[in-house]
Amino acid sequence: MNREPSEVVAAVPGGDIQARAARAGFLLFNAEAAECAEHEEKNRSARINRGEVAAAPVPLRGPAGFVWGRARSARVDALTRPSPSLPARLFGLFTTERFVSPALPTMARFCPLAPVVLGLLLVAPVARAQTPADPVVVETKEFTLRQSDYRRAVLALLGDNETGRSAFENGKAFHLREILRDRVLHSHGRKLGYDRLPEVLALPADKQEWDIRRRTAQDLKGSLKITEKQLRARYDEAKPELETVQIRHVVIGFKGTRFNKRDFTRDEARELGEEVRDSLAAGEGDLAEAAREYSHHEASGKKGGLSQFRRGDVDPKLEEAAFSAPIGKLLIVESALGFHLLRVEKRWFEPSFAEMRAELEEMERAVQFEKLLDDTIKSWRPKYAPGYEPLEDW
C-alpha cells in the first residue's frame, strides 16, 4: 500500500527526517554520484523500452548543475512529490516503503556513497547543536553573560579599535572582572532607584547606564568607614618608597666606569679615596672641600658633594650603603660610577603622614570599594567558561 511522504518519514527512527535533511542543506557529489546517475539513466531507458513505465522524467537538481532524470511510476510518483531540498528527497529513497520501488535497487547497488550521505545528514545537525554560535562566558545566579555580551562590553570599555578587538583573546579574565563589577554597580543602582531619576532619564539611552554606575559608585564609596589605624597601615606600606636620604660624597672614577676623568686604574682610585678619608678623619679639611677638589662627578662636586635621592633612583650598591649606614660615618663604597667616599647627612620620610592623609584615605577607600564589588561577584556564585577563570589575586 502506498503511503503519503509524511507517513513514510514518520516511520523512520529519529523523527522528522525530511526537516532534518532540509536543515543540513548539503550533499556530497563526486565521481561515484555521477556513475550512479549514469546507471540509473540506463535502467530507466530499458524499462521505458519494455513499456514498464512512462517516459515523463522527474527532474532532481544537484549542486553540480546536472539534471538527474528518473522514470515516473505510479508508486514512485506518490513517494517523490516536491520536498524542501535534494537531501530531503534522497532521504526518502532509503526509508522503508521507498526501497521496494523497482527503480531504486539500482541506486542502492551502484551508489556506495548513499550511506555516507545519510550518516552526514543525521550527524551534522547534532554536531552543530553541540557548538552554539554564542557560548556562555560566565553564568551567575543573577544573570548569564554570553560571548556577544562580552564583546559589546569590552568594546564599550576600550573602544571599537585594534586594542578593544585584541582584548577578546588577551586579558580575558581582567576585562571580565571589570564587566562584572559594572554589573554589580548597575544592579545596586537599580535597587536604589537611580534608573528612575528624572535627571538620569533625561540623558541619551547610551549614557543612562554609565550615569547609574557613576552614582552608585559614589554612594558606595561614601558609605565606607575608614579608620585611623587603616590609614597608618597604608602609610607604613608606602614608607619604603617615601624614604629620602641626603649624602655628601666624593666620586673617584677609574677605567671602565662612567666617571673616569683622570684615567685612574681601579687601585689608584681606591688609594686616593683612602687618603682623603684618612685626612678627614685626622681633622684635616672637610668633605665639602674634598668633593670640590677631587670629585669626578661635576654636578655634585660643585655643590660640595651634596646629593639626595629615594630608593630606586641610584646604583643599587650606593643605595644600599646610603640607606643602611649610620648617619655621620665616613665610608668607601664601590659602584658602577667608581668609588664613593661618602657620609650620610640625614634620612627622612617625604611627604609626611599628615601631608599624605587625604591621598591615603582615597587609596584606602578605593581598595575597600573594589573588595566590596569582588565579594558581591563571589556571592553570585559565578561559573566561568574555560579561559575566563578569575585571576589568583581576586
Mean pLDDT: 76
Outline type = elongated
**Topology pattern, helix = H, strand = E:** HHHEEHHHHEEHHHHHHEHHHEHEEHE
Helix count, per DSSP? 18
Report helical residue fraction: 40-55%
Structural class of the secondary structure composition?
A: alpha+beta
Distance between the termini: 71 Å
Strand order of the largest sheet: 6-5-8-7
Percent strand = 5-15%
Structure description:
- It is a single chain.
- This protein has 394 residues and is an alpha+beta fold.
- The chain folds into three domains: 5-130, no CATH class; 135-223 and 358-394, no CATH class; 237-349, Chitinase A, domain 3 (Roll).
- It is built from 18 helices and nine strands.
- Strands 6-5-8-7 form a four-stranded antiparallel sheet. The protein has a three-stranded antiparallel sheet with strand order 4-3-9. Strands 1-2 form a two-stranded antiparallel ribbon.
- Strand 1 (60-61) and strand 2 (67-68) form a beta hairpin.
- It is elongated and about 125 Å long.
- Residues 1-34, 56-110 and 126-130 have low confidence and may be disordered.
